[in-house]
Amino acid sequence: MDVPEVAAQVFGDGLDGAERYAELLTRHGVERGLIGPREIDRLWERHILNSAVIAERVPRDATVVDVGSGAGLPGIPLALARPDLEITLVEPMARRVEWLEEVVEDLSLGVSVVRGRAEERTIRKKLGAVDVVTARAVAPLARLAGWCLPLLREGGIMLALKGASARDEVARDAAAVARAGGSTPTVSECGTALLETPTTVVIVERVRAQSKRAG
Ligand SMILES: C[S@@+](CC[C@H](N)C(=O)[O-])C[C@H]1O[C@@H](n2cnc3c(N)ncnc32)[C@H](O)[C@@H]1O
Description:
The structure is a single chain. The protein has helices spanning 6-11, 15-28, 43-52, 75-81, 94-106, 121-127, 141-148, 166-179; strands spanning 63-67, 86-91, 112-115, 130-136, 152-162, 186-190, 199-205. By secondary structure, the chain is an alpha/beta fold. Helix 2 runs antiparallel to helix 4 (75-81). It starts with 5 loop residues before the first helix and ends in a 10-residue tail after the last strand. Bound molecules: S-adenosylmethionine (SAM).
């Protein structure tokens, strides 16, 4: 598959790693149930670049938890584009955890992989108080806020990669996000100068602890 020209700009020195990741996903992603067969042809634009461009919203040297990493999205492209970040991938399914560990080793990335659910007490204790939590295609915004905001330090941000539903989800779930200790969600586009279809991200800051009524 041809590598889009813009990939060099997005990944810089991480381009070889990104190409290798694309190769691994192309070779094993479908057979291992990580990615649909129709996604292979649009792996770069729709998945790898789409994930990496959220880097523009992540502060330098931040600690990051990627919740529900699955095939490694957005955590692996983010790690390749931004070697300054300290990234942990959280995923409950054993065979996906195995895949993520293999990818991290193959690409020689300094990324940690943890098996578990974001809302588990042990996971919160182990990973809590990070600067940024990312999540892509994991859950509706209200549930995501309940899972992800407790992992953040006060002032930390959740970046939820959403498609066309972003604004509707914000309108529907803003009150639940507030109960979970989040700010008013904002919707932002990442990669506008780079991608034909920029990545839509819902951004929520953790402003305080979860209220007792939040689920
Ligand atoms: C649809 S997949 C998306 C995977 C990847 N983020 C992507 O964009 O391709 C959702 C992933 O979230 C994981 N997941 C579901 N509930 C979770 C939870 N409570 N905590 C962490 N991960 C969860 C699933 O196991 C699955 O790998």
